[in-house]
Each structure stands twice: as C-alpha cells, then as structure tokens.
Design a protein that fits this description.
Blueprint (H helix, E strand, L loop, with lengths): L6 H10 L9 E2 L5 E2 L8 E2 L2 H15 L4 H4 L5 H12 L7 E4 L2 H15 L5 E5 L4 H14 L4 E5 L4 H4 L4 E7 L11 H10 L3 E5 L11 H4 L3 E4 L13 E5 L43 H16 L2 H22 L6 E2 L11 E5 L3 H10 L2 E2 L1 E3 L3 E5 L8 H16 L5 H4 L6
Helix pairs in contact: 1-13, 2-10, 4-10, 5-6, 11-13
Bound molecules: pyridoxal-5'-phosphate.
Pyridoxal-5'-phosphate binds next to helix 5 and helix 6.
C-alpha cells in the first residue's frame, strides 16, 4: 500500500468483498474478533438445526434403521468425497474417520509396509508434536530398528537419503505458519524412492491443494480447524489409488472389512478407500462436519486464497505501522507463497498479552514459548476487524495492561 492504512480503507474493502456474504452463514458472538479459526473453526449457522434433526428424527425416531434409511453407513465415504474435492483428490481416494493422529498412524504404518527395506521416517523437528509422537509409538511397537530423523525445514531435501522409507511433513507449520512446497518436496521424495505423507491440518480449507497433480501418496487432515466441523470433529485420510490394493490398514477393524455384516471370523479388507475405516463412526460429529464442508465447497478456493493473502498482508502492515517490528517480530515468512493462513509473532510476554487480548474480545492463541498466533479465515473474517484487532493489541502493549496478575495465570488449554 505504501501510504498509511486507515480504518475507512478497510471498511471499503469489506464493502467490496465478494466473500462477505458467507459471514452471515456463521454464528459469531457480538463483540468478538475471531482469529482462532485455525484451531477451532466457527460454528456454521445451519449446524444446530441439522444436528437437532439428526438427534430427534434419525436417532430418536428412526433408531437403528437410520444406518440404511438415512445413509449413516456411507457417511464416511460421502463426506470423504466432498473433502476430496477441496484437496484435489480423485473419486474414492478420501475417507473421513477417527482423528488426525490415528489416520497418521494408519498412513505411516502403510508407508513402512510399502518400503520394507528402509528404516527411516523423515520429518521436521518443529512438526506438530502428535505427528512425531505417533511415529515414535509405531517405531516402538514394530521393534524393527526404525528411526525418526528430525531436521529443519531447509534441511529436508538433503536429508532424503536412500534409507528414508517415508517423508512425513505438515504442509503449513502450526507455530510459524510457514508453508512447504508440496509439489517440489513430493517429487524429491519420489526421486529417492520414498513415500510422501502430508499432514494438511493447517492447510485444508485454508490454501488451495492439489494432491493429484502433486502425486502425493498419503495425506491426513483435520475436520475442526478450517473446515469448521465442530470441536473434535473427525479427521480425513487420503490414499492414492495406486496404493489402494497394495496395502491394508494396520487397524483392521470391522468397518473396513469387505462384508462387515456377514461377521466372518477373519479379516478380509474391503476394496478401495473403505478398508481404511475402523469402527462405528461418530455419526453426530460427522453430521456437524458435513455442514461445515458443504459451506466451504460453496466458496471459490482461489477467492479464499486471494482474500487470505490480502488479510495477512494487511494485518502485518498494520502491525508494522501501528506497533512496530521492533516490538513484536513476525516469525511467519513475509513471502506470500511461503505462508498458510496465519501469522505468528514472537513476544517475550506472549502468554499474558494473549490473555489480555482475549479479555477484550480479540481471540487468537498462544503457542509456547513466546508466540502470539493469529489465524485468518477469509470465509467469515472481515477487513475492518483487522484494524480493530491491531488497535486492541497496540493499546494493551502501550499501556502494559497485560501485566496484571490475572493475565499471568496459566490455563490447561492454550
Ligand atoms: C491440529 C493438528 C493435529 C490434530 O490431531 P488430532 O489427532 O485430530 O487431535 C494433528 N496434526 C497437526 C499438524 C495439527 O495441526
């Protein structure tokens, strides 16, 4: 922009915003500026009525018959197909099931099975911890001398040696917002004979993804972040067609059996993506997730990305203009192609500052040890709110209102 940004510039952007109509499709409380949709997406306005219908009619009245008459039995594949469209998967490559951690375990075990002569799982040291923990657990359980090799983002290329069975990375880092180059890294992994597994937790619904053109082997992702599926929403798993008949799931549960209702004593995997289901799916949670995914499918991915980049650029320009880069320092790459839909700033007293912000209705989050994290959800976040959020932060920092005892007390969930 060059010149100073004013609040009325941002009001004008709101008036011209083609995605503005989506805001009314969400329930957001008055007086809240929600910059945490990357951790728990806002509630779609249609969710409560749909949930009530499922509870009262499908569960309450139609009872067990609902598995057939209301399509409960196909719901994991049905929503999986919808999410597949958001991430550039082909038909029949995506299923909704379990949590991201559990899906990662399944995909990781399958990757190791596909590369039996290799012993290394390669990942990033600052990857989201559950991904690393699940890898550790699998390695311990297998007891075959696998190791988890952890490197910095810039060292990934050099670390993909002939011993690497699988490269397991998260596309957008939860602490820095840095986005890795999916097509390039996938190509490198394949060139060295490794399987490529991407975690899309902070990218599905936030940045355009094309798993097919990037030729990805496995991917997992989260339902409750940018997909607005509700607290603890089920996660998704993508398995490229070419691997679907070569491996089965290590968690060989009855819902992944070729014919679950013949109750055979031994496991025969279902064909296609179905074999990656495990046990009875959480129908109520799946219904809420579907409402969020349907809403996301209405918006153009390129319009979402354009607005996301515009919002992060403006927010950072406002922080520079109003607060100064010497006070809070941006950890996220400034280069637009290298970031997801969040900005992270390092500040020594990030914890009490975030408590004070939340107390004033600006909800972001804190990531240890010193990160102020702000998520931008172009589907329901306005431009004027960016101004108001930065103004609130500026006020807290200049008056040091964060330095009150109540803001220093630690909560269990941050
Ligand atoms: C949020 C997140 C998860 C969450 O895992 P769950 O098992 O669904 O709780 C996993 N990985 C990454 C990278 C995440 O950001």
């Amino acid at each position: 922009m060059g010149q100073l940004i004013t609040r009325s510039d941002l009001e004008a952007l709101d008036r011209a915003d083609p995605l503005r109509v989506f805001r009314d499709r969400f329930t957001l409380p008055e007086g809240v500026i929600y910059l945490d949709g990357n951790s728990l997406g806002a509630m779609p306005q249609a969710a409560p009525a749909r949930m009530r219908e499922v509870v009262e009619v499908e569960w309450g009245r139609d009872l067990i018959r609902s598995w057939n008459i209301h399509g409960w039995i196909d719901i994991q594949k049905r929503i999986g197909a919808k999410i597949g469209r958001l991430i550039g998967a082909r038909d029949g490559e995506t299923i909704v099931a379990d949590s991201t951690s559990v899906n990662l375990f399944k995909a990781l075990a399958a990757s190791l099975e596909l590369r039996p002569d290799r012993r290394v799982i390669l990942s990033e040291r600052s990857n989201f911890p559950t991904d690393l923990y699940m890898a550790e657990g699998l390695i311990r359980y297998l007891g075959r001398g696998h190791t988890l090799r952890l490197v910095e983002p810039d060292e990934i290329d050099a670390a993909i040696g002939d011993d690497v069975a699988v490269v397991m990375l998260t596309q957008v880092n939860y602490r820095t917002g840095r986005m890795l180059d999916m097509p390039r890294i996938t190509e490198q992994a394949h060139a060295r004979g490794a399987i490529m597994l991407w975690d899309l937790a902070h990218s599905a619904g936030a940045v355009p993804i094309d798993l097919t053109s990037a030729n990805v082997d496995f991917a997992v992702g989260c339902g409750y972040k940018y997909l607005n599926g509700g607290p603890g929403a089920p996660a998704f798993l993508y398995v490229a067609k070419r691997h679907q008949s070569s491996v089965t799931s290590v968690l060989s549960g009855w819902h992944g059996h070729a014919s679950p209702f013949t109750f055979e004593p031994s496991y025969v995997p279902a064909e296609g993506i179905d074999r990656w289901a495990v046990g009875a799916p959480a129908i109520l949670s799946l219904i809420a997730l579907e409402v969020g995914v349907d809403l996301m499918l209405e918006a153009s991915p390129s319009a979402l990305r354009a607005k996301s980049l515009q919002q992060t650029s403006i927010f950072d320009a406002l922080v520079t203009q109003e607060i100064g880069n010497d006070v809070v320092s941006l950890v996220t790459p400034r280069e637009p192609g290298m970031r997801g839909s969040q900005l992270c700033y390092a500040y020594r007293d990030a914890w009490p500052v975030m408590r004070a912000l939340i107390d004033r209705g600006v909800i972001g989050d804190f990531r240890a040890p010193d990160i102020l994290r702000f998520g931008f959800t172009p589907l329901y976040l306005g431009f004027t709110e960016l101004w108001d959020a930065v103004a609130t932060l500026k006020g807290i920092l200049s008056a040091r209102t964060w330095d009150r005892p109540e803001y220093h007390a630690r909560a269990t969930v941050t």
